[in-house]
C-alpha cells in the first residue's frame, strides 16, 4: 500500500510538471514550415529528384563493381595476370602490388562511362557543376592516378598481412585499414587536397575574427581559417575539418562565403569546430573499424566457400588472383551495411549541429544554410528513408532543431527576440536564380562577406 501511494504521488508530480512546462516563445513547427515554404514546389521537386536518384546510383555503382570483378574472375584474367607476375617480378609483395594496379586500372577504365555520367553529365543537368569537360577530366585523371598508386600499395600491404596472419587476417587487416585511413587523413590536407583546390588564409575582417574567437573560446588552438576555391568545380556550399597530427585545419568554400552570409558562415564554422572539440575523427574511426572487422570476417567465410577446390584457379585467401572476388564480396557487404555506415556518420553530424548552434548562436544562419543545401538534398524524407539513406540529418530536421533552439532560448531570455521563421522576402538564392534565369543576387538575409 505504501508503494502504491508513493507511485501515485510520483505520477501526480509528473503530471504537474508537464502542466507547468515552460512554453517556447513561438511555435517551432510553424516556423519550420515557413522556412521550407521558401523553396516553392518546383525547387522542392527538383531537389527530391536529384537526391532520390542518388539512392539507386550508389547501388548501381556497387553492382557494376561486383559485375566487373566477377568477369575478371570467370574469364581467367585474374589468374592469368597473377601467373605472369609470378614469372616476372616473382616477389610476393610485387605480385600483389601488380595485381592491385591491374584491378584498379581495368575497373576504372570499364566504369568510366558511369563515372562521367554521375560526376559530370548529371551534375550539369541539375545545374550544380561549373567545370568544362576538359577541366573535369583533368581532375578525374589526377584522382585516377592517386587511387591507382595508393590503392595498389594498400593491396600489397594487405596481402602481406593476409599471408602472415592466415585465417585471422580479418582482424589484423582491419587494423591495417584503419592505420592506412589515418595516414591518408593526415596527409590529405598537405599533399592531396592542393592538387584539386587552392587553399588561402581567409581575408582579415570581422567575419574571420569572429570565427577565430569562437574557435579559441571552445578550446581550438586555431590561428587561421582557410578558404578553398570550390567554385571552380561546383556551386555547392561546403566546409570541413581535415587532417590529423599537426595537419588539422578548418576550411570553408568560397561559395559558402558568397552565398551563406555571415550568420550562415559562423554557424557552419561552429559545426566544424564541434567535430574537432568532440573528437569525432577518433570516434568515427573506432566505429568504422568495428564495421570493417565484421565485413572482413564475413568476406573470409564467403571467400572460402566460393573458392573451394581452387575454383577460378585461386589457391586461397592469400592468393592475389582472388583480389577481384575479395573486392566484389567487400563491396557487396558494405552495400548491405549502408544504413549502419550512414547512421554512424549522421550521429556525429547531429552532435556537431547541436554544438554549432550553441557555439555560434545563429539559428537563422543555420536555417538559411540548410535551405541552401536543399538545392541538392531532399528536405523532408520519411523516417525510414532518413534512417537508411541519409549520412547527415535531413534539412527538415536541421531547420526544426534551429527553430526549437531559437524558440526556447528566446523564451529563456538568452537570445534577442526576433520574428519566427525566415526574414520577410527571404528565399534561397538558387530559387531566385531559376525564376529570373539570371546570376543569383544575395538574398535580403544573406549578404556576402
What does this structure look like?
Strands 1-2-4-3 form a 4-stranded mixed β-sheet. By secondary structure, it is mainly alpha-helical. A hairpin with a 6-residue loop joins strand 3 and strand 4 (249-253). It is 68% helix and 3% strand. The chain has one domain (28-436). The chain has helices at residues 2-19, 28-36, 40-74, 77-88, 92-110, 112-125, 133-165, 169-192, 206-217, 254-277, 280-306, 323-336, 338-360, 363-373, 383-389, 395-411, 429-436, and strands at 199-201, 226-228, 239-242, 249-253.
Helix content: 55-70%
| Rg over C-alpha atoms, rounded to the nearest angstrom | 26 Å
Going by helix content, strand content and strand pairing, the class is mainly alpha
Shape: elongated
Question: Care to give the gist of this entry?
Answer:
The chain has 449 residues and is mainly alpha-helical. It has 17 helices and 4 strands.
